[in-house]
UniProtKB/TrEMBL annotation, chains A, B:
This is aromatic-amino-acid transaminase. Its cofactor is pyridoxal 5'-phosphate. Pfam families: Aminotran_1_2. It is found in: Cytoplasm. GO terms for biological process: aromatic amino acid family catabolic process; lysine biosynthetic process via aminoadipic acid; tyrosine biosynthetic process. Its EC number is 2.6.1.57. One of its GO terms (molecular function) is 2-aminoadipate transaminase activity. It comes from the Eukaryota.
Length: 492, 492
């Protein structure tokens, strides 16, 4: 048994003060056949006004693609969940009488079992006492993580450009942040090492990262970078929060050669699993990684279902917090998602994820093809993403003919002009500066700008949300705006 | 237009610091037909693996009772929700493509509309700029309320005996509390007035109360007491959080006369509505009440769906917090609950609530009948609840023959002996002291014990969770234990 390191010294005041409910001591008698239990305020399931729920979904292996509407019974899988489970029913089902009742803050065992098996399939976690508990999505999970580790006024590490909502979660809690420089491939470990070596004040307890298909940059950390970052976490005793909603939107590599596309298609489940980048979890000999996983990008955001993977002592504190805040995920979500996953099975779920990979690869290709075709590549730089929903196009603001004059050598003014020009042409991409983590560490640590990057600006686009023809049209329009703004002639 | 008072001076540091996401400014172009919007990281609904969800529920008016399993098509209402709504479909439906997508932190308009109409039917709110936003249940709502109003180290007012989980939510946040004395009928307004008049330190910003069918005491505040408490809220400028999960578990009055039971059955919807106790919301001329409503006790806890009713400026701050924490309720919950409610209609929902009233009245009657029959009423006192899931039986510890000797005049020792004796007899009720709010206001305010109540202890039972025969058996056993513990002879 390889045990995780004890990291309880990193808990926040809030986490340390939390007590389990005194009523828990009574609940050990809840199912005791010798005791009539009049202790719990649970409504009878007889009064839940749902007797049966049926859900129709595509059946594995999704031969016509995951987006195809099932046309035959063979292509359809029907999940039927009853209020009260019959004796002869599947063992892996969560009946409505159970899912719609109170309880199960950690999650229902049937769904947790599925997720644990799945986790073992994907990540080789090097220590034994890890576990999984459910969340209501990574946004809630991140809020709960902050409350469990960071006191007001303390500082966390974040990526230089990061998901603004995640930063706002921290800001609201009075948590300060410090940005780590990134390049096309995410966090630069050498920069992180330098920052930590020169750190002033108490060391940060957390690094928040979206390592795969990062939002907003679309970058993905290589296994080598992850190893280097993990080593720094060990040296400087911090916890890595890997927020991984896009992990299964890893794609085939982009190639200019259209005829060669599809050659990286995975042939088997094993090939698919091996194609996935090494997670921080897989490197986690200490138990200092908390992985935030979610169905939002692989099944549906509205499921509001995610899960932490972490060492048990950390999950215990998170459970205490969930008990007095979000309690648990929706029972409808639990019954329906669990019903579908167990009908698909582990293999069917992998088929689904392979289907996603194929869809996103194609969308990404269409987007990058359009950027190549329609953008002024003398001043613009693209970096085809290998994962996620986002791509970025970088511009050199200093190459704008009016940079020093009209825009007073301020790259943000060029950024805004490009944004407005895009809108005027009928296309919207998000300016990269909107995701910029300013940094307000306490006491102040110096934020260094990597020389040569001062005048680089970028825009975030997505290929996820729109049909392919619109995607191409939108990029054509934005490209035309960029040509116009830079005073360049468009060849086409 | 009657406007709510501006109460923004009561916001916490956390609420004051929250910013809306900068991406919101871009989202105004989201549905603009002239703009190709490449700004949002939303997955396509094509990839949501649910094409249709069907739910079977009892149909109004529930002639055979709300717990009866529908046997005919007439007794069944079928909610069928498609991924993409057809043009000819009902206007009040939330399709899966919408409910399972991101967005709608406030809630989907279709369901909010239903709830607003319902709220107007039940509460006459005296000011105009109130609104409703969804929560994921009252536990989450309470956590968000605390974060929005109370800074660490500040003090809130709570009922002397209160829902321990609600207290633990506050404790974790470093929020102190001060208990308000209660009697059989809830908070004693005169005591509250006295406490506030003599208050040392900054006045509390919040009073947390479960006014109807209180947990744990089962007490309900009369309209008169609510008026007096509301007046104090105005005088001392605090906000009333009315946590009302049990509001629709209001019952007919208990009567010893079995033949007279059922005479208070409501004959019409209007009669039902008039039978409900005046809510704090109905008295709220200032907009200083935040009502926490929930489906947990009227439909199912696992729906994880509730809502705030409050003035808009308060809901705006709560929305900012929800955006970076819970985000939104489950889309499955939204589509399914909304589908059912709109098929039932407002009238059908009232039928359901009337059905609940009837079920709970009967359960309560069975419980109180058993207490009367099996408990040593020389030392025990019961107070039939008029609402909720809970009843209490009070004991005078000083009447225990060994109070001064074996139990060293400590009422809690008698309480524990009764609890253990109950368990030995095969029945569990929860000791009242487990719900006792100790009080840790900062700076300290003196907690007074009402003279004559020092030696009173009580147990909380529920009639909600068990079938009627078990309920009677459990109370018979506990009563026998009490007779034994007090050394009294049982007549039966």
């Amino acid at each position: 048994m390889v045990e995780a390191k004890n990291l309880t010294h990193l808990f926040s005041d809030e986490a340390n003060v939390r007590q389990p409910s005194p009523l828990k001591t009574a609940f050990k008698y809840y199912k005791d056949p010798n005791i009539v239990f009049l202790g719990g305020g649970l409504p009878l399931a007889d009064y839940f006004p749902w007797n049966k729920i049926t859900a129709e979904s595509p059946a594995a292996p999704f031969a016509r693609g995951i987006g195809a509407v099932p046309e035959t019974a063979e292509e359809t899988v029907v999940t039927e969940i009853l209020k009260v489970q019959e004796h002869n029913e599947r063992k892996d089902e969560v009946s409505l009488a159970r899912s719609l009742q109170y309880g199960f803050t950690e999650g229902h065992p049937e769904l947790l079992d599925f997720l644990k098996t799945h986790t073992k399939l994907i990540h080789k976690i090097p220590y034994d006492d890890w576990d999984i508990i459910q969340t209501t999505g990574n946004t809630q999970a991140w809020d709960s993580i902050l409350r469990t580790f960071v006191n007001k006024g303390e500082t966390i590490l974040v990526e230089e450009f990061t998901f603004s909502s995640a930063l706002e979660t921290a800001n609201g809690l009075g948590v300060n942040h410090f940005p780590i420089p990134m390049d096309d491939f995410g966090i630069v470990p050498e920069k992180l090492a330098e920052i930590l070596a020169n750190w002033v004040g108490p060391k940060p307890k957390l690094l928040y990262t979206v390592p795969t298909g990062q939002n907003p940059t679309g970058s993905s950390l290589s296994a080598e970078r992850r190893k280097a970052i993990y080593k720094l976490a060990q040296e400087h005793d911090f916890i890595i929060i890997e927020d991984e909603p896009y992990y299964f939107l890893q794609m085939e590599k982009y190639t200019d050669d259209v005829s060669a596309r599809g050659e990286q298609k995975v042939g088997s489940h094993q090939e698919f699993i091996e194609s996935l980048v090494t997670s921080f979890l897989t490197l986690d000999v200490d138990g200092r990684v908390i992985r935030l996983d979610s169905f939002s990008k692989v099944l549906a955001p509205g499921a509001r279902f995610g899960w932490y993977v972490a060492q048990k002592s950390i999950l215990e504190r998170l459970t205490r917090l969930h008990e007095v805040s979000v309690q648990t995920a929706s029972g409808f979500t639990t019954s329906i998602v669990n019903g579908l996953l167990n009908r698909w099975g582990q293999d069917g779920y992998i088929d689904w994820l392979i289907g996603l990979r194929s869809e996103y690869t194609h969308k990404r290709d269409v987007a990058i093809d359009a950027v190549k075709k329609y953008f002024p590549l003398d001043v613009a730089h693209y970096n085809p993403p290998v994962a996620g929903m986002f791509f970025t196009v970088q511009f050199d603001a200093s190459k704008h003919p009016e940079f020093a004059t009209k825009y007073e050598s301020d790259p943000l003014k060029v950024e805004n002009a490009l944004y407005e020009q895009g809108l005027a042409q009928g296309s919207l991409l998000i300016p990269g500066s909107w995701f910029k983590a300013g940094g307000n560490s306490n006491p102040p640590n110096k934020v260094e700008v990597v020389p040569g990057t001062e005048n680089l600006i970028f825009f975030r686009g997505t290929y996820a949300a729109v049909p392919l023809d619109e995607l191409t049209e939108g990029l054509k329009r934005f490209g035309a705006g960029a040509y116009k703004e830079y005073g360049l002639e468009q060849a086409i």
